Amino acid sequence: MNAAPLLAAVVFWLAAWAFNEWLVRQHFQSRAVQQIARAVVPLLFGITLLVLWEGIVRGFNVPSVLLPPPSAIWQRLITSLPTLWADFRQTFLKSVITGYVLGCGLGFVVAILIDRSPFLQKGLLPLGNFVSALPVIGVAPIMVMWFGFDWQSKVAVVVIMTFFPMLVNTVAGLAAASHMERDLMRTYAANWWQTMVKLRLPAAWPFIFNALKINSTLALIGAIVAEFFGTPIVGMGFRISTEVGRMNVDMVWAEIAIAALAGSIFYGTVALIERAVTFWHPSVRGGQA
Asked: What is the number of structural domains in the chain?
C-alpha cells in the first residue's frame, strides 16, 4: 500500500468539498458570474471523483487489468486518437445519428396517423408496448442476420429502440390538450390540421422532447450493444469487446469515456433545443427565473 497518493486524494477531496459548499451558498450580482459558478460546481465535483479514483488505485496498488487509473486512460486516449475517431465515426455518426433520425421520425409520423385512426390506436399501441420491452441483445443478432455486418444492421436496432418511445410519447402529447381548448378551436371554425398545428402539437412538444432525450441515450446504447454481435473491424462496441479479450482495459475505458462524452453532448443539445422551442412551458420558465 502506498499512502502518499491516497492521502493527497483525500486532502484534495476535502478541500474541493469545502469550496463547493461555499460556492453553492453564494449569490453573485452578475448573472454571468452566477452561471459560471453553477458550472464550476459539477465540474469540480467530477474532477474530485477522478482524483479520488487515481489516489485509490495507486494507493492500494490495484492491478490495471482490474481498474486502470484515469491518468493511464487519458494517456491511452491521447495516443489512440485515430482509432477512437474511426470507431466514433462508425458507431455514432453512421449508426446512432441515422437510426435516431429514422426511428424518431417514423415514430412521430405513425403517431399522427394513429391520432387519425381509432383502429390503429387500439391495435398498434399495445403491440408497440410489447415490442419496446424486447431486449436489445435478442433483437441485435436478428438484425445482423437480416441486414449484414455493416452499420445498416446497427441502424435497424437503433430504429427499433427509438421508434416506440417516440410513438407512445407523441400519442400521449397529442391527447394533452384539454376538451375546453379543443372546443374553443371549433368555435373558431378551425379544421383538424389547424387544430393540430396551432394547439395540439404545441401542447405535445414537452412529451416529444421527452422522447427525444430518452432516445438520445437509447440510440447510443443500442448501437454499441449491436456491434457486439457482428461488425466490421471498427466501432465502439467492436473495440470494447475486442480489447477486453486482450486485457487492454485502459482502451476499453477510453472508448467508454468517448461514448459517455458523446452521449452527454447529444443529450445536452436536445435539451437546449427543447428550451428554445418550449420556452413558454412552466418547467422552462421556472428554470429561467
From this structure: 2
Same-domain status, 90 and 27 = no
Of 212, 241, 216, nearest to 140 (Cα)? 241
Collect all residues with Cβ–Cβ distance below 8 Å to 147 and sequence separation of at least 6. 153, 155, 156
In a domain, 69, yes or no: no
What is the Cα Rg of the chain in Å? Answer: 24
* 126 vs 269, more confident: 269
Asked if pLDDT for residue 289 goes beyond 80, the answer is no
Task: Answer with the one of 16, 33, 62 that is the final residue of a domain.
Answer: 62
Name, in order, each residue with C-beta under 8 angstroms of 176's C-beta and a sequence gap of 6 or more: 200, 203, 204, 207
Range of the domain at 9: 3-62
Q: Using alpha carbons, list the distances in angstroms from residue 204 to 83, 199, 284.
A: 41, 9, 15
Distance CA 214, CA 44 (A): 27
What is the rounded distance in angstroms from the CA atom of residue 12 to the CA atom of residue 8?
6
Is the domain of 142 the same as that of 197?
yes
C-alpha cell at position 114: 394513429
Among 111, 161, 155, CA closest to 135: 161
Do 196 and 254 lie in one domain? The reply is: yes
User: Of 196 and 207, which is predicted with more confidence?
Assistant: 207
